[in-house]
Amino acid sequence: MTEEPPEWGIRRDALGIHSLSKLEDGKRVRVLVTEQNVGATSEPTLRDLSEALIAVYGTDYGIHSPTSISRFTDMTRQAAAYRKGRLLLAGDAAHVHPPDGGQGLQTGVQDAVNLGWKLAQVVKGTSPESLLDTYHAERHPVAARVLRNTMASIVLRREDERTKALRNTMAELLSMDEPRKRFAAMMPGLDIHYDLGKGHALLGRRMPDLDLVTTNRPLRVFTLLHDARPVLLNLGEPGGFDITPWADRVQLIDAKYVGAWELPAIGAVTAPAAVLIRPDGYVAWVGDLRQMGLADALTTWFGTPAAA
């Protein structure tokens, strides 16, 4: 940009929200501008951007040499089903919404990670095709919530007096610890809870990336998932678990963890004796050396036990 100094930051008016911000290199500028007329179906051009800037700021600041130009709307859509036979939808093919909060990326990535290991097991014959039905059951409600809160965010952009009052009320609520923690966990998807039945607060939630101590070396929980293999993490007496029928599919790790257990949005939870972690990082079973329900969880998520 050249000519007069730009009006940096966010600007709101009757058209909507706009912003001009410098990128880290100090040479380029990120531009967000709401157009006067919606519904254009062609790819946006530099001329379109120039005209939109002039309409809002009275100048286009001599803008030139764009690296990319894109156009988005407040369109909000979701596929009714994520699976139909051999057809599977994920990411933007399954759900589209405004980019408010940057939630689309993490939602799409978690779709892929949730589906990937399940699809691999079905393709290899480890698990039945019915495992793929859990993809829709788990991920569809997550995206539906993202669509709801992005629609709410769009409403808060309006500049009428009633919306300003609502926006101020929301800002006041988010100055409080509890609402702020809930929204901070929701926006990046850290509060997702898959319904895997009743039990420990960890069940169906994302496993924290704890600093573990093993007999060989210290390590982080998530390093155990780098090979996309499930993990039975024994935090109690070493050698107490026998998962031989699933040993070709599931890692058994004896480890210790000294510290508090805390989950986003929930807070402190009781330390478990053992957890079964799926390849996508979510906890499929919580228990102890009595192993109640462990064989069922292993069979449900990782296939029938191998013959002796």
Description:
The relative contact order is 0.09. The chain is built from 6 helices and 15 strands. The longest helix has 23 residues, at 133-155. The chain folds into 3 domains: 1-71, Alpha-Beta Plaits (2-Layer Sandwich), CATH 3.30.70.2450; 77-186, FAD/NAD(P)-binding domain, CATH 3.50.50; 211-302, Glutaredoxin. The strands form 6 sheets. The protein has a 4-stranded mixed beta sheet, covered by helices on one side. A 3-stranded antiparallel beta sheet has the order 1-2-3, with no helix packed on it. A two-stranded antiparallel sheet has the order 4-7. It has helices at 46-57, 103-124, 133-155, 161-173, 177-186, 294-302; strands at residues 9-12, 17-22, 29-32, 77-78, 83-84, 87-88, 95-96, 211-213, 218-220, 231-234, 251-254, 262-263, 267-268, 274-277, 283-287. By secondary structure, it is α+β, with helices and mostly antiparallel strands.
